[in-house]
Automatic annotation (TrEMBL):
Keywords: ATP-binding, Nucleotide-binding, Transport. The keyword Nucleotide-binding applies. It comes from the Bacteria. One of its GO terms (molecular function) is ATP binding. Belongs to the ABC transporter superfamily. This is ABC transporter ATP-binding protein. The keyword ATP-binding applies. Residues 19-252 form the ABC transporter domain. Gene3D superfamilies: P-loop containing nucleotide triphosphate hydrolases.
């Protein structure tokens, strides 16, 4: 027996993928204006890992995230998430699936102007049937996790950009979802708050076994990730372990 056979490959020790995409294609527009954004993408994303998607502006990162998370229907290909063929579901089925399993942090944060931070974070709990005192306590705890306990009663117009981003992060994490899809979750954050959000992403994957897929331009995230996918012009051009930070150097 060779030494080789004694050492399992990293793939052999990984759990079944939580997200598997095959031949995913997506274009916007038609005719001469057609923009071919995703080009026959095959990818498997694993639970217990923080996976980053990086690449130049406009290469298709957010579009890929939307297709993998049930927000945008591809033109061709299949996406299986937690054993469910996502794009075989009808709209109600997709809504129910996302509600049950997914947490989202969007660019722009998608907060409701009339709701306080606490009410924004309570929303996914209420949809899941958690109401009253239990919902208040869970939502408040999630806000405290991102350092926003004192701002629980404020509305978006009274919050800074970074505070709004942290409300969106608390809302994504409050239900302990099996899957977290995050688009630029640290873009508005300073060093200290960036560290808080990176810690949440990291812990969700490592401690809860969540599948965390994150689009980012932020090089500070790389040292905390398990895997780095690079995209260019609608394709995955590199896929491997995220490089560790040089010793003694923390990007945060
Ligand atoms: N709803 C849409 N309708 C038409 N074109 C779109 C739509 N969404 C995205 N696109 C186009 O698809 C391409 C990829 O956009 P996408 O947002 O996926 O890129 P990205 O890599 O996430 O960019 P960035 O890093 O700047 O956020 C761009 O050319 C964009 O203009």
């Amino acid at each position: 027996m060779t030494m080789h056979a004694l050492v399992p490959s990293p793939d052999a020790t990984r759990a079944t993928p939580a997200v598997t995409a095959r031949g995913v294609d997506k274009s916007f527009g038609a005719g001469a204006a057609r923009n071919h954004v995703l080009k026959a993408i095959d990818i498997a994303i694993h639970p217990g890992e923080l996976t980053l998607i990086m690449g130049p502006s406009g290469c298709g990162k957010s579009t890929l995230l939307a297709v993998l998370s049930g927000l945008l229907r591809p033109d061709a290909g299949s996406v299986e998430v937690l054993g469910t063929a996502l794009w075989d579901l009808d709209d109600d089925g997709l809504d129910a699936f996302r509600l049950a399993h997914c947490g989202f942090v969007f660019q722009g944060f998608n907060l409701f102007g009339a709701l306080t931070a606490l009410e924004q974070v309570m929303l996914p709990l209420n949809y899941a049937g958690v109401t009253g005192r239990a919902a208040v306590e869970q939502a408040y705890a999630a806000l405290c996790d991102v350092g926003l306990g004192p701002q629980a009663g404020l509305r978006p117009s009274e919050l800074s950009g970074g505070q709004k981003q942290r409300v969106a992060v608390a809302r994504a994490f409050v239900k302990d979802p099996a899957l977290v899809f995050a688009d630029e979750p640290t873009s508005a954050l300073d060093k200290e708050n960036g560290q808080v959000v990176v810690g949440l992403l990291h812990r969700a994957a490592r401690e809860r076994g969540a599948t965390v897929l994150c689009v980012t331009h932020d090089p500070r995230l790389v040292a905390h990730a398990d895997r780095l996918l690079r995209m260019e012009d609608g394709r995955i051009t590199a896929d491997g372990p995220a490089p560790a930070a040089p010793s003694g150097h923390s990007p945060y």
